Amino acid sequence: MSALAIAPAVRDTIASGGAVVALESAVITHGLPGAAALDAVRRQWTASQEAGATPAVVAVFDGQLRVGLSLEECTALAQRTDTVKVSPWNLGAALTSPRFGGTTVAATVQAAALAGLRVVSTGGIGGVHPGDGQDVSADLSELSRRSVCVVCAGPKSTLDAAATLERLETLGVPVIGWRSLVLAGFLAASAGLRLSSRVDTVDELAQLLGQHWELGGVGVVVSQPLAGDLAIPSSELAAAETASARGPERTPAELRHLQARLGERVIEANLALLERNAALAGSLAVALGRVMSPMDARHG
Ligand code: PSU
Ligand code: MN
Q1: Rounded to the nearest whole angstrom, what is the distance from the C-alpha of residue 145 to the centroid of ligand 2?
Q2: Would you say residue 22 has pLDDT above 90?
Q3: CA distance 76 to 278
Q4: pLDDT digits over 92-121, tens only?
């Protein structure tokens, strides 16, 4: 059995030059509580489809790195209690045990690159945790080695956004603001930091990505702010208490803490931004198909 399995629907879409959006699954297994996780999958699924793209949920499923789960398989994944959070560092091991896991942005970017996909959608990316600057998400290092674009609502609210942006700059990973010059703040509308570039249409964004990759550029972050009444004021999102959580458990613990403290609003905001990001990612994948020839689309 090969370690990587691309679903027939995804394979067919790629073969016919269609658009695909890769979706992460750590948000299903570790980011959102049961029912909300499935809501998140359905809403992202529909949003990317309505934009003209085929959704490809990435996960470790039955001992394989799968690109494209069915909705039934997503439900099965959400219901399992033995899943691990899968990052590039434990991906190989997770295939053997426990054989099921949710992929972080890092592992999803890796899978997307292997499958020849260019666009990943998520809620918030990982980054530099506050403190001594030693806990840095593998999302950043993976973005520095794969020519894949991640559409997100900025770094998760519990992170050090300034240090995260700084690190992305060091790694050569541009952060492009979607219709905004301010870095998105995940559940908050803004992280209060200025970006160096902004785009207002998906064609403009696709053009930029095509040129970035033509010149050997690596990963790209697209930051879409969650505006309006769903966004939560930054003052309410003040540092989560995570004294006991370390390592891979830290991010899930911080998200649970926010959900416990601020209630349903956190879930609603999280679902809304996941959906909006999947819609934008879908339109972007379609636009990329117009600017990149099948030759360019292949990862070099
Ligand atoms: N965004 C969410 N919920 C999540 C995550 C992001 O709204 O659960 C996950 C993503 O999969 C991201 C991961 O890649 O958290 C980062 O974890 P860490 O800091 O351990 O790298
Ligand atoms: Mn970490």
Answers
A1: 18
A2: yes
A3: 22
A4: 999 999 999 999 999 999 999 999 999 999
CA dihedral (30, 64, 278, 166) positive or negative: positive
Max distance between CA atoms of the chain, in angstroms, equals: 50
Domains and CATH numbers, the chain: 4-292 (3.40.1790.10)
- Which residue has tokens 């945790």? 129
User: Ligand 1 center to residue 291 CA distance, Å?
Assistant: 31
Give the span between the Cα atoms of 124 and 34, in whole angstroms.
19
* Active-site option among 85, 142, 156, 254: 156
The per-residue pLDDT of the chain, averaged, comes to: 94
Atom 21 in ligand 1: which residue has the minimum CA distance?
A: 137
Q: Is 156 labeled as catalytic in the residue annotation? A: yes
